[in-house]
Amino acid sequence: NYLLGVGRADCTGPVAQVPLMGYANPEQVAGGLLTRLYSRAFIVADRDDSRRVVFVSADIGMVSQRVRLEVLERLKSKYGDLYRQDNVILSGTHTHSGPGGYFQYTLFWITSKGLIRPSLNSIVNGIVKSIDIAHENMKRGRLFINRGTVENSQINRSPFSYLANPASERSRYSSNTDKEMVILKMVDEDGQDLGLISWFAVHPVSMNNTNHLVNSDNVGYASYLFEQDRNKGMLPGEGSFVAAFASSNLGDVSPNTRGPTCANTGESCDNPQSSCPVGGAAMCMAKGPGNDMFESTRIIGHNIYSKAKELYEKASQEVTGPLSSAHQWVNMSDVSVELNATHTVKTCKPALGHSFAAGTIDGAGAFNFTQGSVEGDPFWDQIRDQLLGEPSNETKACHKPKPILFSTGEMTWPHPWHPDVVDVQIAAIGSLAIVAVPGEFTTMSGRRLREAVRSEFDSHGTPRMNVVIAGLCNVYTHYITTYEEYQVQRYEAASTIYGPHTLSAYIQLYRGLAKAIATNTTQGLPRGPEPPFFNVSNLTLLPSLGVERAPANKTFGDVLQEARRQYRGGEVAEVTFVGANPRNSAENATEHNFLTVERYTNTSGSWQVVQNDASWDTRFYWTKGSLNRSNVTIQWHIPRGTEPGIYRIRYSGHYKKRLSIIRTITVPFEGSSSAFEVTAP
After folding, report:
1. Is the preceding omega at residue 166 within 30 degrees of 0, hence cis?
2. What number is the average pLDDT over the span 637-666?
3. Are residues 442 and 580 in the same domain?
4. Is residue 663 part of a domain?
5. Residue 356 in contact with residue 408, Cβ under 8 Å?
6. Is 122 a residue of the active site?
7. For burial by CB atoms within 10 Å, which of 175, 242, 280, 378 has the most?
8. Are residue 503 and residue 452 in the same domain, yes or no?
9. What family is it from (predicted)?
10. Is 440 annotated as a binding residue?
């Protein structure tokens, strides 16, 4: 028995003008909202509350070092030494449709337009708030673990790299992806459901790089379905049951199960270069199982959800035993790895290879700098001059056979471009070991790491540990391939920033943590070098929020394009309003709902909210016009089976108003469509 607490809090942030984090495509800028992003926190304490472990899964691309340092600082000022770097794991789901701009290392500023304080703040605040809620709701309960196979939801997107691994190793596995899902079920002592964590390796890239609506992708849809199922009668994002679908070793795993085809000809481009005869790599895109990306997201998300639900309902293996956690900071650019008694190798200063710029079949071409677009911007001009700096001979030799595109470890203006100091961390909850990794391990890298950690526990008297990898934790260091995959230099290998021996170094480090936990010597682990905290307050190329205007004879929230009088289930109700920049709302109101769908109830003579902007059935689009005007279009994709009746769609926002030359204020407003009828399909 343990003390358990679960919590969920909004971490969406600004949903307009901010670049989305994931595909590194500067054109992919937020222009609305499909569904809210949440941080989900789980706290486990032992019976006498002497030890605690916190696991957080947030609907963001990855946890950045800046996010982690700020969260830990906030927790320390609030709770003292209760929550620390060793017992708090922060993991990102790896959605590619969340706001960027929450990084302190320069490389990530290029595609996120710098450091965007409102984006960083909403993530930090959401994570801390979810932990607060879990902390305040601790109760006695039990944990159960279960595992099973998820079919039809992944492909390996670098199969030619995978094939470079030894045949003897590959023959031990039936697939080139890890199909296993591990779930942790939490109930209170009366058997009431509290929450679930699922770990499953798949990229949340069912929404592709043409999408402009903020959302949590396939794993977020799985969370939504599970929470809606358990929190009966509650709106999305409400209710006490919390279901996290966390990332794992997803480095080379795509949900786009129909595989790569040439967008222009429809032919397969499943070749070592992922290239098309006409149009090259940019034309080679993988498609999901649906007719469009929204449907693919739902199909993959539903597959993941239904397996988790089955495993949750059947879970009978109880998790018992002590809690423990181990953490170290490591300078990953300088780790010596003993491969065997006679052979020692080293990691390298970070660098990205040429194939990094090619992208993947889930999203081609990062950093497509076009000629002439950096003119006259001193920030970019200096960065461009930095780019022309040649990698040192030492770095070139260390990374072989990687041809270096960006020698980020040797670029320090205005701050270092990549981290040197990285977190390695394991938390053990009885027989469950959560290995928190700072990036994207490929399928085979993850298998090797799990096996190494398990055998380390075995050899120190702690057999039969369930070892799970939690991905995208604590600091982002791109990819980790095996040594053999690294030789092939596809995207994942080019993005293995600490060189060919990165995986061996991590295996050595995590073995050390596992040994310390198994032998109860975690106090003796060296802390390692503290990561830097750069003094960057707000450095951004985002347009500033100016005073806004409504068209003549109209005011904010007025309807420009009305809904129809009548709809059937399966149709789309759409309304366009005089709008204002949604960033105003993110910066002035937390937990702001941009829209509601309301149903008229005759009995009470009042309108009742049936959907909000966290629903996957609603879409909120913001379009900037000229003369400081903008429009908002709200869609409700009416599900078949929606209860017939009278409905309306409401919009609420904030606009900026000038009071004097030096003072502007933010004014809330709302608008509503006319009533319309929904009839049975």
Report:
1. no
2. 95
3. no
4. yes
5. no
6. no
7. 242
8. yes
9. Belongs to the neutral ceramidase family.
10. yes
